[in-house]
Structure formats: structure tokens, C-alpha cells
Amino acid sequence: MTEIDPNISAKGYVRPEVLVSTQWVADHLNDPSIRLVESNEDILLYDQGHIPGAIQIDWMSDLNDQLRRDYLDSARFAELMARSGISNQTTVVFYGDKNNWWACYAFWVFQLFGHTNARIMDGGRKKWIDEGRPLTREKPSYPRAEYVAPERDDSTYRAFRDQVMAHSAARLPLIDVRSPKEFSGELLHMEAYPQEGALRGGHIPGAKNVPWATAANEDGTFKSAAELRAIYEEQLGLKPEQEIVTYCRIGERSSHTWFVLHYLLGYPKVRNYDGSWTEWGNLVGAPIERP
Amino acid sequence: MDKQFYIENLLDHYENPRNRYKMEDASVSITGGNPGCGDLVTIYLKVDSDERVIAASFEGEGCTISQAAASMLTEMLIGKTLSEVREMNIDAFIDEIGREVVITRPKCATLAINTAKAAERKYRAEHAPQG
Which residues pair with B56 in a beta bridge? Predict the structure, then answer.
């Protein structure tokens, strides 16, 4: 699928093909080449009503390895795709709660497996509902699909702690997308998430703080390219060709900013550090900065 | 009972919450979670002279699981003594509300019961023998 949604092209993005509007989704509800995937933080929102035909993929129970801290391997990703009726040719359109925070995270994990035929529905679940569009509680069932997954490629979009250590030492751009209180070290975890805290507070030396939701409008849609450039280039001083690492607490909020920088602004070298503060803030001997 | 049964039960409690009101004459109340962000639950307990819960209610906001679990908990609290509230087993509570559904969101699932246990401790502290 290469068509560009006209509602999205008007926003001036470098890679507009990665976004579709709610209207575009409404127009493609019966398109068998498309699979709608809802990914939420609130795992029971899907059961309260979802876009007709959508399946749910949960970041924790579906995409994470259930033993060690990592993602699925290629065999299990292929199985997840096959039982979800997703083939290598299927266009996957993600949407979810909280400005598509978790949808972007799922999208990012899919990119580790090279499923480039993926989109985000701009505005997510909230915009669909606010526009009065239909929801259903009926859970769809799709025929099992054939899916061949390559080995997971972490080298392009994923950063690991030693790489981040070198990145920080070289004073390359690091974007900390957590809240200002987490960045300053006042909070050891995001408010209301004490089980995902760290022993030390602060941020990775050299990091600049731009909370992830800065890139979103009130209605959950992404800001226009001009607005995003004002934030990340004019205010923060990023340059498109730089190597950039984003991080947060476990790499979910920062996948939203990764999506913005890599696709919407077209920066070629952006990686997401999913170890993030829950790794760095617990890492013996790791340098920490506190403003 | 299958997973769908527990999902439907949680949704029923979320959409039709039981005992969701501010109890003006509570013997003790306490808020768990973090105001202004995320899941928030306030538990109200009214106890009689035998320290038995004769009314329990909650207020709150947050995700489906946290609010549904609070509703279900209030039904379980009524009739228990405060000692029984203290002894409530968190694992058993998770089983009761649907382990398979809530296991990936343990903080949300246990916010209400942990808040109720905090309410019991607060009541004890406020009613400790003087001298």
C-alpha cells in the first residue's frame, strides 16, 4: 500500500505514509489486506468496545518475552502474526489509548522484525470515539495466515546500555521523554507506577528533556511537521542527520518520540533505548546527571 | 470459569460500580495511588463496636481493572472483621477477580485491596489504647 491519506499529507511529514486518519480507517473497514490492531495501556478498553474488525495485541503479554527482559524471538513473533491472521503482505494499522503511546510501542517492536507495512491511526482510540464512530464488542476471528519472520534486527532502531554509555560520553543527542520530575530526579518512577522505579534518580548525562506528549495535540493527533520542527529543531537544536537516542522508563513513551523523529520528521538515525531509566537508574556505576 | 467470564465480570463492575460513593460517616478512609495521575482509589469503611465492617465504599479514577477491582472488593469487605481484612490474601483476591485477565497489570489489580489494608492500619493507629 503506497497511497497517502490526503488528511495526513496536509500535515507536511517527511514520511506521511506511516499515518492514516480515522476517516481513512473508516473507509477501509472491510479491506481484507488491512489488519487493525488495538494496543492499549488499559488492557480492558478493547473489551469495552473496539473498531469493528480490530484485534488486540498487548505489549506485555503478547510482545514481551515472559521470562527474561526482552521481546519475542522471530519464531514466536511469526506465530503471533499467523494466529492474528497477519501475513507478510498485510498492512497493519495500529491505534490505541493515550495519544497512541502503546500503539507506537507495538509499531516499534514490529519494526524490529521488519514489518514495514505498518501504520498508525492518527489520534488513536480517543479521536475515533470522539468523532462518534462505531465500536463493537464482537471479537473477530481470522483464518490463520502464513508469516515468515526474519531474525529480530535490533541494530537499526534499538539501543543498548553500552551503546548509550558511549553515546552519552560522546555528547551525542539523547532525548529523555519522561516527565520533568523524573528527569530532575525528584521522582524515581512515573507517578502511579512505583513498581517500575529505579534506585537512583536523575538522567543520563547530556540528555535533554522533552516530555513525549509534547508532540501530540489535545485530540491525540500528532502535531504538524512545522510544529514538530519548532520543538525539536528550533528549541532543542536537533539536526536531522545526527545519531539520536530516545529513552524514558521502559522504552514505551520514547517509542512515541522515536516515531515522530524517525518517520514524521524523517531523521534517518534514531534509536530507542528500551532499557531506559529502569536499567540505567539501577546500573551499578552508571554516571547520572541531576540538574 | 473461562477468561471471558472474568472479563465480563470486571466490565460489569466497571460500568455498574457497586458501593461507589463518598461515605460521610465512615469510621476510616484512606486514598491509595497518586492524585492527579494514574490510578486512584479511596476506600471508606464503617465498622461497628465489634470492629466488623458494616459498610464499605470507594471513589476513584483510573484504568478499568483498578476501578472494577475496587468495586468487587467493597462487596467482599462488608461483613468482615478488621482482623479478617488485615488477613485477606492478595493472591486469593487476584484469583477471585480473574488472574488470567489481570496478571499483567498487578499494580492496578491490587491497588484497592492494598488501600483497604492501609485503611485497617490507619483505623488501628487512630483507635490505639491511650496511655
Answer: B45
